[in-house]
Design brief:
It is globular, with a radius of gyration of 22 Å. The protein is built from twelve helices and 13 strands. It has two domains: about 10-165 and about 340-355, 3-Layer(aba) Sandwich (Rossmann fold), CATH 3.40.50.2000; about 185-335, Rossmann fold, CATH 3.40.50. It is of the alpha/beta class and about 350 residues long.
């Protein structure tokens, strides 16, 4: 009988796809969308998507979709003999029995900067276990790669590579959020309210601006740190100045970027720094910390806060607002164009092929 050659099977674990408001959820949606589009024009590999939750996979038209069952948090899922299994982040909640090759994407080791030593050691052990089983490890920035090489052990047979995340502005038309009721200019920032985001340093700084600007901090805020921010807003009598609207829709987020006076991002721990690039694509001045990956991603297109003393922050802000002009805006916008999901999907596709051929080129 004639032997039919089958296409190699690649499975992508999307256990966070049900959470569009968190960074990894967003990455899962945008990456799988780009990969599904790329695969539809390039049928050398057969794709399966392992998804959790009820929604968020309408875009996965090309390839099989398997639903993850809560049981697989404890027992490995046996779906199919996959030739490549791609774990999209370093802390998957589910176990999948894989066959041949395994790709692991590491976004960050932020716990090193945000957790106590004992917890950090425990998390590091977990990530090392994931690395031990991988044939290829991808980092989303050079900063993440350097941090990983410092704290984790890699092996000669592994392919190690940096592939930047893509950044895509929402396709739906911007919609004005109901909490913006007047014309007072505002500074914008976004993220889950967690201590690593360092949002509280913006409060004494905005107070120094004396009512010239409001501050909008969008993102999930029913957290302990969110309560801390609310308390601090009351203490500093900033209730009329600072708005904490909670999560916003993609259309509202787009409006907030488009109409803000500047984007501010004092984060202490990032693996990439998606909002910084989103702000550049919207041609806005960006003020951010110089910690972790932000120096690399911000490059020379943002204004860096080296200190979080309110006076220092104000000084950098004033200088930056004076310097920011059409030329700077255009240069930042052009720089930000390099981060596309299409390019990201192509580079992963190439990596899957390399693993399947079994001869790493690098």
């Amino acid at each position: 009988s004639q032997h039919l050659q089958r296409h190699p099977k690649v499975a992508i674990l999307l256990d966070k796809i049900h959470r569009p408001n968190c960074g990894l959820g967003r990455v899962s949606i945008d990456f799988s969308k780009a990969m599904s589009e790329f695969a539809s024009q390039n049928n050398s590999l057969e794709f399966s998507y392992l998804v959790y939750g009820k929604n968020g996979h309408q875009h996965l038209r090309h390839g099989q979709v398997f639903r993850l069952n809560d049981l697989y948090r404890f027992v490995p899922a046996h779906y199919d003999n996959f030739d490549v299994l791609h774990l999209l982040h370093q802390t998957p909640a589910f176990h999948v029995a894989w066959s041949s090759k395994k790709v692991l994407t590491i976004h960050d080791l932020n716990f090193l900067f945000t957790k106590n030593k004992r917890k950090a050691r425990h998390y590091l052990k977990d990530v090392q276990r994931m690395v031990d089983k991988a044939d290829a490890v991808v980092f989303i920035s050079n900063f993440t790669r350097q941090t990983c090489e410092q704290y984790l052990k890699f092996y000669p047979h592994q392919i190690l590579r940096v592939i930047y995340n893509g950044v895509e502005l929402p396709s739906e038309p911007p919609r004005q959020p109901s909490f913006l009721t007047d014309e007072v200019p505002y500074l914008f920032t976004i993220g889950q309210c967690l201590p690593k985001k360092n949002f509280h340093v913006l409060l004494p700084f905005i107070k120094l601006l004396d009512g010239k600007y409001r501050l909008v901090i969008a993102g999930e805020n029913n957290t302990a740190y969110g309560s801390y921010l609310r308390k601090m807003i009351d203490q500093l009598k900033l209730r009329d100045t600072v708005i904490l609207p909670g999560p916003v829709s993609e259309a509202e987020k787009q409006y907030l970027y488009q109409h803000c006076a500047a984007f501010v991002f004092p984060s202490l721990a990032e693996g990439f720094g998606l909002p910084v690039i989103e702000a550049m694509l919207n041609r806005k001045p960006v003020f951010c910390s110089d910690r972790t990956s932000l120096k690399e991603i911000g490059s020379n297109h943002v204004f860096f806060w080296h200190s979080f003393e309110p006076d220092d922050m104000l000084e950098v802000f004033r200088q930056g607002m004076n310097l920011f002009d059409e030329n700077r805006s255009k240069a930042a916008w052009q720089y930000a164009q390099q981060f596309t999901w299409q390019k990201n999907a192509e580079e992963y596709h190439k990596l899957y092929q390399e693993l399947l051929q079994g001869d790493p080129c690098c």
